[in-house]
Amino acid sequence: MPTPAPFTVLYLSTELVPYARTGGLAQVAAALPRGLRELGDDVRLILPRYGLIDPARHGLRRLLDSFPVPFEQNHEHAGLWQAPETDLPIYFIEHERFFGSRQGIYSFPDDGERFIFYSRAALEACRHLGWQPQIIHCNEWQTALIPNWLRTTYAEDPFFTETAVIYNIHNLSYQGIFGHRVLEIAGIHSHGFIAHPDLSAGLNEVVSMMGRGIIFADMIVTVSPTYAREILTPEHGEGLDPLLRDRQHRLIGILNGIDTALYNPATDTALAAAFDAADLRGRSQCKRSLQQESGLPPASDIPLIGLTSRLNDHKGYDILSAVLEPLLQHLDAQWLIMGTGEPRYHNYLRDLEARYPARLRALLTYDEALMRRLFAGSDILLMPSRHEPCGLDQMIAMRYGAIPVVHATGGLADTVSDHHPPALGTGFRFDPYDGMALFAAVVRAVEIYRHSDLWAQMQQAGMRRDFSWAQPARAYHAIYRQARSLKLTGRPHA
Ligand code: GLC
Fold this sequence. Notes:
Bound molecules: alpha-D-glucopyranose
Strand order of the largest sheet: 3-4-5-2-1-6-7-10-11
CATH superfamily of the largest domain: Glycogen Phosphorylase B
């Protein structure tokens, strides 16, 4: 295939491994820009320099002392830092009050101000770097005003007139809803308030940052084809489905990849033994050592079921907690649950663990190396998420030979094929979203587990699937081309 023409791309994310992470976005931001770089694009990242990012530890250096950023009726000053030079420059916006003095990433009362400032400072930083992005790739609500600014405040600014914007939605549940004052802070109040006839009254009385990203972006991308369809419906649209339906012709779903060099059971030094699709023998040692590490009795002939998601209802704990105890009573299986989340689920799991010590262990923590050992040592990974725009863990689990049992939604539906004899699947899916369907899918998986040859074939089928970023990076690159053509000519293809 010929190499597609390269672009200059500003990639904006409020999370990035290894600097700041709360979820999947941090992993995507670390991998997709690299994939685009391999296609020749000049990609640069900018994120806020939160207090938790220690410049000394990461070898950051200050690049710009102070540059003005329009803010409210006036200006604030920002500094710019840079990570050690590579072919993928990473910059950090410095602002003591908004970021430097905060240890956390989100959930401050002034998050609206903080991320409006970050977004605006990122645009102004490009000017000061003398580096003109042809594409700005925005992620989530925190950067959603950029498409809006480019159509208003910056519309006549020669530095940005040829810049196209991609708006990337990772999760519609976090929209950035604020009062009207954010428009003044962002300097766009004079362009008016936007109401949409079909939005529910509630959404028409507030400013939805994400809504603005959807309205003004040249292209909108979400993280799986199924989620891209689901969010057009009132059931999954979280109130924004009328807007998304209006902009449907600009919306596409591109499945995320995973970092297949990092997540490789043949080379992962955190594991007790190495293995790959051609030779799975090391896996039994991984299982034994995981049982030992977590305090489960050694048992090689019954399935070990792992869970690693946050402990909340989004991730399926409402339906799981309705059937977990009967599953513990009736199924000959072990359970290992790692994660943190709502205190009520911490208590619930602590109680179950005390009553079924030989069957269930709850490790109420988040530890990246332990997570990889869990994927390598579990037979089954359960992901019963109510919604899952993409989900990365099921792909990593398959790469490590754990067979996923998932709710058939979003990216889970796009990455896990249901085992439906005689067709060989890579996992087990359930639908509708309820405890009984979950129960039945787990029973189905445990039943197939007894047929060890068939089980190994399913494992190998999952392990051999290509979940790398190579293909998604090409798909994003093609969307950049489309967005730019739409911006410059008003037509999809130049
Ligand atoms: C969000 C979504 C998750 C997705 C991740 C990366 O965290 O909830 O499904 O995998 O973003 O796109």
